[in-house]
Amino acid sequence: MSVKYQCTHCDFTQRVRQEARVYEKEEPKCLRPICWLAWCHTCKKVVDAERVPTLRELEDHLESVRLEPYAERKLFAYWPPDEEIIVTQRYIEWRKNRVAPSRCFECGGHDVLFSTASYGDLPCPQCSGGMEAHITLIGGSFTRFAAAVYSLEGELITPGNAPEEWLMEF
Ligand SMILES: [Zn+2]
Ligand SMILES: [Zn+2]
After folding, report:
1. How far is the CA of 123 from the centre of ligand 1 (A)?
2. 35 C-alpha to center of ligand 1: Å?
3. Which listed ligand is nearest to 38 at the C-alpha?
4. Which partner from 7, 9, 30, 134 sits 20 to 30 angstroms from 91, CA to CA?
5. pLDDT by residue for the chain (170 residues), tens digit each?
6. How many whole angstroms separate alpha carbon 38 and alpha carbon 51?
7. What highest taxon heads this organism's lineage (predicted)?
8. C-alpha 132 to ligand 2 mean position (Å)
9. What is the pLDDT of residue 107?
10. CA distance linking residue 55 with residue 37, whole number of Å
11. Distance between Cα 127 and ligand 1 center (Å)
12. CA 28 to each of CA 24, 35, 59, 122: distance values in angstroms, whole numbers, following the listed order
């Protein structure tokens, strides 16, 4: 999967590199970093970034899954409700010990600006307009390749093995 950001007011477009990512020591069921696209002030481009929600956000998320199992949610929602409760509890445990703030996966820095959604609109660097994400699905999925492994603080330990041209294709 790859994503193209396109400004709605000018001709600015940008591809975003994405790949499968997991935290270490979470086998057999991996806890994955919560990945949102963001503007990185250091890289000066749209990047895939590790979003570290507040503990409160995660607790609200858990409450919302309990109250309205099938409602649409912003933080993450990939699982059937009973499984999502278990996963969210694991994220809560992780968050209690997590120190470092959200991080750019490209440069490892923390100066990232998130939209209100994982693939939400972001400000255009070329004009005053907004950029929208255009998601393109291409053959196969991330699961063909080994995921990049991160520490629970979001530091890269082992890079993934997906070829660069595949990650940037769309
Ligand atoms: Zn623009
Ligand atoms: Zn960066």
Report:
1. 8
2. 24
3. 2
4. 134
5. 668 888 988 999 888 888 889 999 765 566 889 999 999 999 999 999 999 999 999 999 999 999 988 887 777 766 788 888 988 999 999 999 999 999 999 999 999 999 888 888 898 988 978 888 776 655 455 667 888 999 999 999 999 888 777 666 54
6. 9
7. Bacteria
8. 19
9. 96
10. 20
11. 4
12. 10, 20, 24, 35
Q: Which residue in 124, 165, 119 sits closest to 6, CA to CA?
A: 124
Q: Where are the domains of the chain?
A: 2-52+103-168, 53-97
Ligand nearest to the CA of 9: 1
The sign one gets for the Cα dihedral 71, 56, 94, 117 is positive
| Residue whose structure tokens are 């477009």 | 13
Ligand nearest to the CA of 103: 2
> How much distance in Å is there from the Cα of 5 to the middle of ligand 2?
16
Q: Which ligand ends up closest to the CA of 42?
A: 2
